[in-house]
Amino acid sequence: ASFPFDSSEREHWGFVPSEMFPRNGLILGKMSEPQRKLAHDLLRSGLSQKGYLTASSIMDLEIVLGGIENAGGGDAARGLRMERDPVKYFFSVFGTPAAKGAWGWRVEGHHVSLNFTVIDGTIVASAPSFFGSNPAEVKEGPKKGLRILASEEDTARALVMALDEAQRTKAIINKAAPNDIATMNAVTINPLAGDGIPATDLKPNQRELLMKVVDSYVSAMASDIGCIPHR
To answer: Which residues on adjacent β-strands are paired with residue 125?
Structure first.
């Protein structure tokens, strides 16, 4: 579970199943019940209540995904066999936790990657971070209707639908959605420079919708880092 703070392991992050992306760290499934409670307490410390419920719900969703694949759907339909386990999530600590100095920690597994840096007792960074959901909406069973990332999806759609034709031409940079996140999990990335529509070209009501998109992400983090920028 422990690594030096300056270890290259801090740059080894991903969001796909461990069969496709081998991970280091201590998994929840190898912990005792008291240790699991402490691990979840650590997770809560970096997230808001909403963020913690999102992370824990994604982990629990592995049971649903496993059921879909056992019925011949999901990755199983593409010939991929993955172990879907809600306790197959890895906890890693970088450096020595202390009130002074720098250290960090990570929680990661399928569709969850949370990385935190702490300096002098304050979380100063919560990146890179990733939440995913498969299925995006549970279609049947006890969890029917569950959409874990509904806020992220619905706020973005509301913003796009509020744009006029000229604005939408600027905002939509590719008519075909990418197969995965554009920058993947590379350590060095090339952001989408000047692509898209600037917020200054949005009408007041559209900027409000944009802020709801931003809030859907930053509100998942603890209050000391999950702040909304000024309009």
So the answer is: 117
